[in-house]
Amino acid sequence: MHYSAVIFALFFLWAPEPKSPAAPGAPAPQEGKTTVEQQALSAADLVARFTKYQIAVVRKGPKWTKDAPKKIEELSAGNEHSFKSMVAQGKLLGIARLVDPSEFWGLVFFKVDTKEEMKSIVEGAPSVKAGLLSAEVRTVWGSRGLGAGLSEAPGGSMQMDPKDKTYFVLVMKKGPKWSEKADSPETRKATSDAMQHMFGLYKDGYLRYFAAFEDMSLKARSLSILNVSSADKAMKLAGESPAVKHGWTVPSVYEVKIPDGIIP
After folding, report:
1. What are the domain boundaries of the chain?
2. What is the DSSP string of 37-74?
3. Which residues pair with 141 in a beta bridge?
């Protein structure tokens, strides 16, 4: 589905002229604090500035064992040159690894020309080739600035570090009252209210990244990265969304660790 159709279905695109983006790569504010850019943007500006990303949803592979995490770290260390090269080319934008990878292992964010190119990169990853991990490729339209400071981060490395910052990934999935009728008054009102709620989180400094899945057939409809103190706080904020209250969407929250330089 084309970008305009995706945004219309989710947010009813206001279609203003996009403003020139502020300098990317600024450190994320503390919870509840905002940047100058956040104060200046409107919800319309935020949507108009969305750009295409590719995301690899990484899960445990067929050869996963209890010592797989150690093997993955070793393989990643041996592949660091490739990581740095993709970062330098602007193709690899970041990684978010689950603290408790019971359902899936993590997310890897890319900015490449095609989904096929990203699929080739993912399938060539040592941990995937070894069968320790598997990955599904998804295209999303999301807020700008992701990974802008990664090349300037210490070492420019994608390796996990105990000092990596904790965030919470919020996935909104189709709920019991989800409707595919994007042009109905009820759907327009529900999604407009949901967008205003998400923009409020952005203005308040909680929402650091937002993306909508391009494939409308997927159960998951959007993915957010929240800068909050706990999973309970993330679920509380998600529960305040009109779309959740009305049963249009259902939230799931995952605690992740993300290296410096990735979150705008």
Report:
1. 3-19+30-258
2. HHHH--HHHHHHT-EEEEEEEEEE-TT--TTHHHHHHH
3. 52, 212
What would be the CATH architecture of the domain defined by 3-19+30-258? 2-Layer Sandwich (3.30)
Closest by CA to 118, choosing from 152, 93, 84, 146, is 93
Degrees to nearest 5, angle at CA 8 with 94 and 136: 35
Q: What angle do CA 107, 113, 115 make, to 5 degrees?
A: 50
Residue that is written with structure tokens 């994608």 in the block: 158
pLDDT averages per 10-residue partition of the chain, 264 residues = 40 32 40 52 80 93 89 82 85 91 87 85 90 93 90 57 88 89 71 84 93 93 96 96 91 94 89
Tell me the two tokens of residue 244.
């959740």
Burial class (CB in 10 A: 0-12, 13-18, 19+), 190: buried
pTM: 0.82
Query: Residue 94, by phi and psi: left (phi above 0), alpha (psi -120 to 50) or beta?
Result: left
Reduce the DSSP state of residue 234 to 3 states and report it: helix
Alpha-helical (H) ranges within the chain are 3-11, 36-40, 43-48, 68-78, 80-88, 115-123, 126-129, 185-203, 231-239, 242-245
